[in-house]
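hey so i finally got around to running the thing on that chain from the lab meeting. sorry it took forever, my laptop kept dying and i had to restart like 3 times. anyway pasting the input first so we r on the same page abt which one it is
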Amino acid sequence: MLLADAFLRQMPSSISVADRLRFEAIVTSCDVVEMAFRNLEQTLTNILEADLRNLSTRDITAMSMACWTIVDHVHVFLQFARKQAKVPGGILDAFQTDYGFVTQMRNAMDHLHANIRNAAERKGAVQPLHGSVTFSGPIRGDGTFEYIIVPLATMHRGSQLSPVIDTYAEPPASGVGNISFAAFDWQLSVTDVVVRLADALQAFNASAEHYCRQEIERIAPEHGLDPEELWDKRVKGNAYVRLQLLPRRD
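ok and heres what got predicted. didnt touch it at all, straight out
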C-alpha cells in the first residue's frame, strides 16, 4: 500500500514521539491488512477447484485468521486516522463513513462472550459464528466462472455441498468477495475495503507530510534551528539483533 520511500516510512526525527507512534500504528495496520488480504486471496485461489467438503482445518483457520485480522486492523486505522487532521478532498471522511461499521464488527467479536445469547436469537445463528467468505474465480474460455462460499468453521456442522447450478449471472470481478458475519447481520466487501484503504492511506500520507512540515516550522525557531535541516534529518532503517549463544560451561 505504501512505498518504501513514502513519507510515513521515513519521517523526520524531530517529530514528537506521540505523533510518531500514532503514525506507526496506522502504517503497520495497513501493512498487516495488505498481507492478510494476499494470504486470504492465495488460500482461496488454491482451493478454488477443491472438494469443499474436504478442506483442511489449517486452510479454514488460515482464512478465518486473515478475515478477522483485516477487520481488526481496519478498525485500528479508523480509530487513529479520525483523530488526525482532515485530509483534503474528503477521502478519509468518505472511508470512515462507508466503513465505520467495521468497528462494530470488531467490537462484537471482541465481546463475543457477552453477545452469544443475542447471537443465538438472530436469524443468522444457523450460520458459522465467525462467518463465511466468498471468492470468484477467473472467467474461463467458455464464459463460465466459479463462485464459492466458504464457511469459516472448523467444527463439524453437517456435511453439505450445493449442486453445480448452471445459471446466468453478471461475472463479478475475479478475487475475494465478502466476509459475511451472519450471526450479527454484517457483511464486509474485502477487496473493496482493501482498495479504499490504500487510497485513504495515500491521502493520509500526504496529510501527515503537510502536518509535520508545519510542526517543524513551528518548533525550529524555538530552538534556534534551521527548519530545512530538521526536515531533511530522517529516521531510516531498523535495529536488528542476532545473538550466537554458547553452551554454558560450569
